[in-house]
Amino acid sequence: MLGGIAVSAIFFIVGYLIWKKQKLWLIAGYQDSEFKGDKKKLARDGGIFCVIIGLLTLGLSLFIELVGNILGVIYAITVVILSIIFVIKVNISK
Question: Residue 89 pLDDT > 80, yes or no?
Fold first, then answer.
């Protein structure tokens, strides 16, 4: 459980750094010279994405004992779907 809480805290910190401090280099694959979209919107969306993943990770680590292993499957599916949505949203906004 402590590992999940630590991972979620890392996601919260990275989300804050991307969203509020505009540290876009924390986004995998981001290159300043090649990105042609709105950097503030990318920072907001990337930060919110990290915070949501942090919340899901925290929920998983706290409630997996109560709910069972199905919660891990739901978590994985949700993270994959949210990742796909984020990538599509970033590529459409270019």
Answer: yes
CB-based contact 24:40 (threshold 8 Å): no
**CA atoms of 81 and 68, how far apart (whole Å):** 21
Which residues make Cβ contacts (< 8 Å) with residue 61, sequence separation at least 6? 1, 3, 4, 5, 7, 8
User: Model's pTM, two decimal places?
Assistant: 0.88
CB 50 within 8 A of CB 82: no
Confidence bin at 93 (pLDDT 50/70/90): low
Alpha carbons 60 and 68: distance in angstroms, whole number: 10
Q: How far apart are CA 16 and CA 63, in angstroms?
A: 24
